[in-house]
């Protein structure tokens, strides 16, 4: 009798990833997901490997996450790949991190093209080595006409730097009288950001148990849902992502109002 009841229960609960994915796709998924990919170093340390081995494994997670986000119907995936603060790391680690876009794109670009993914970048390309710039530029050109998910790499990105640059742009426009003070609105400020053509993230994910924003999209994340997971980035997989999206779909996004709106 109990056996029968148990069996009945298990059939009602979606068990496989595919079943859960199908249910998630029936409800609105976040349009823009931003991820702080953290924990590569700790993943490597646990295995007595050099930190760069963690970053290399993290690159494979970038591929897996991109394909899965695309399958989920997410329209923009922004990944924090290198921050303006990451220049303080040892040279060997920086050099390795700078080579990853090249390796990632030379290995996976055909797959991205096949999946209609468009590669973009936010951040300042000024300090990037030429081979890094060229790899990203080549991928952006090769995918420029794709109209599927945008894979947006934040490389040498810092939110405060971005805000300062936006303020400079607007200050110049004010001094040249191309805009008036009354025209300075949330929209014009958003329009001066590197993400001007993108919707704000609906969901921010940070892996590895750290609970902070680390100078990432501070303006754009004003109303984002925040999800922090203990999973280290190289271990992050389809199940981790799905669990976070399932949780997101249960939340009520009110954007400051009192209405308990369904997730948008
Ligand atoms: C933070 O983990 C991670 C980074 C600084 C680099 C993230 C880069 C990748 C995941 C690969 C990017 C791939 C492409 C294709 C651009 P950490 O090193 O600070 O980890 P820890 O806190 O455990 O030391």
UniProtKB/TrEMBL annotation:
GO terms for molecular function: transferase activity. Its EC number is 2.5.1.-. Its cofactor is Mg(2+). The active site is at residues 38, 86. Catalyzes the condensation of isopentenyl diphosphate (IPP) with allylic pyrophosphates generating different type of terpenoids. It comes from the Bacteria. The keyword Amino-acid biosynthesis does not apply. It comes from Sporosarcina jeotgali. Mg(2+) binds at residues 38, 225. Keywords: Magnesium, Metal-binding, Transferase. Substrate binds at residues 39-43, 51, 55, 83-85, 87, 89, 206, 212-214. Homodimer. This is Isoprenyl transferase. Belongs to the UPP synthase family. InterPro entries: UPP_synth-like, UPP_synth-like_CS, UPP_synth-like_sf. Binds 2 magnesium ions per subunit.
């Amino acid at each position: 009798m109990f056996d029968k009841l148990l069996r009945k229960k298990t059939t009602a609960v979606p068990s496989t990833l595919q079943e859960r994915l199908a249910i998630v796709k029936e409800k609105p998924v976040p349009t823009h997901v931003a991820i702080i990919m953290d924990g590569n170093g700790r993943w490597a340390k646990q295995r007595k490997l050099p930190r760069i081995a963690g970053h290399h494994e993290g690159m494979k997670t970038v591929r897996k996450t991109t394909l899965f986000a695309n399958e989920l119907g997410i329209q923009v995936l922004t990944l924090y790949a290198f921050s303006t603060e990451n220049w303080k790391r040892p040279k060997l680690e920086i050099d390795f991190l700078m080579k990853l876009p090249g390796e990632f794109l030379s290995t996976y670009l055909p797959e991205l093209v096949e999946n209609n993914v468009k590669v973009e970048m936010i951040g300042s390309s000024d300090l990037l080595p030429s081979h890094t710039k060229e790899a990203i530029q080549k991928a952006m050109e090769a995918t420029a006409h794709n109209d599927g998910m945008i894979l947006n790499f934040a490389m040498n990105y810092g939110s405060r730097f971005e805000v300062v640059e936006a303020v400079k742009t607007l200050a110049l426009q004010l001094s040249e009288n191309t805009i008036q003070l009354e025209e300075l609105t949330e929209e014009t400020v958003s329009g001066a950001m590197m993400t001007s053509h993108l919707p704000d993230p609906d969901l921010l994910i940070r892996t590895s148990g750290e609970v902070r924003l680390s100078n990432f999209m501070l303006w754009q994340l004003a109303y984002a849902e925040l999800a922090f997971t203990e999973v280290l980035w190289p271990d992050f997989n389809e199940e981790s992502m799905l669990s976070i999206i399932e949780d997101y779909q249960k939340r009520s996004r009110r954007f400051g109002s009192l209405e308990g709106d369904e997730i948008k």
